[in-house]
What we know:
alpha+beta; single chain
Amino acid sequence: xxxxxxxxxxxxxxxxxxxxxxxxxxxxxxxxxxxxxxxxxxxxxxxxxxxxxxxxxxxxxxxxxxxxxxxxxxxxxxxxxxxxxxxxxxxxxxxxxxxxxxxxxxxxxxxxxxxxxxxxxxxxxxxxxxxxxxxxxxxxxxxxxxxxxxxxxxxxxxxxxxxxxxxxxxxxxxxxxxxxxxxxxxxxxxxxxxxxxxxxxxxxxxxxxxxxxxxxxxxxxxxxxxxxxxxxxxxxxxxxxxxxxxxxxxxxxxxxxxxxxxxxxxxxxxxxxxxxxxxxxxxxxxxxxxxxxxxxxxxxxxxxxxxxxxxxxxxxxxxxxxxxxxxxxxxxxxxxxxxxxxxxxxxxxxxxxxxxxxxxxxxxxxxxxxxxxxxxxxxxxxxxxxxxxxxxxxxxxxxxxxxxxxxxxxxxxxxxxxxxxxxxxxxxxxx
Length: 431
């Protein structure tokens, strides 16, 4: 009998099972190899062997960027000295609330021109009374509110004064405020460099005033030449003409210098300016308490102004009458100049009536006589007194007509500003 014939039946079954397992394992190995081969051949799944893919963002994709910082706001007193009443008009939906609050005290779809008054206990807008000391009026439209025929951006605050008068304060972003100041203060025909210099000077002035405002005050500066002129977006004249208070040109000058200020010793300073210096700016020390750092500099650039030189005659009796309250002299018989008018300091005089004398300076006499500047000489004739002067305004700091002349001569913004504020530097604020 063959050797295999000697195996028992259980051993045969065991051997058969082993063979079946080996066959099954072989089949599975073939299947796995075929599946892996098919995956490598699939373009959609060929990851490891393919080149890296760079995904470019679409033109509409939002890229992460630094969040812009909003410019500071400025509070502009539109009614220096207060008013017995003012007119408020709102051309769209609006709300009335307490300053700093969110609860609505009143609202409307629009407000036709309404009279605003105050008394000891309330503020009244048209026929609606509010028992408040201060109110904030917010318009959905911006610009959307008119105060005394001037259209303004931002919000309007109404403040009840202790003397029973009412004040209106416009609160708006600094850069929007400046768009009106540039056009209000400087003609649109002036060179671009001059207007950009004006934007820098006005921004510095406003931020300085904001920085030094009384913490208890409800405003930072005035809308008149007491601070710097601000007419709003547009305004209506007494004759009914509607005029623009800002323009594409003024907005461009502000945008080109956004956040740029003039600094000395790393601090803001009060950048005083005037229309025409008349050939030399004025030393600030003798004019303003906060202008001691502003020195007198020559300026040959403003000679094309009509106010570069001027003459104003007075009848001698009229001159004495206008100055009597200041000098206590009933009749001026002689005048001697003790300072000015071309030395960089305001003019000073010794006036006499024959027996008595009195001292007066150019600022005091300018106010009494209605002159263009405090820089003048007085010439006494037989029956007349003649004021021969130069410039328009106090003459301290930046000369606007001088900036015009420098701009026409090709001077840069930096050169123009540096000429009138020597020893200073321009710096861009982070907003």
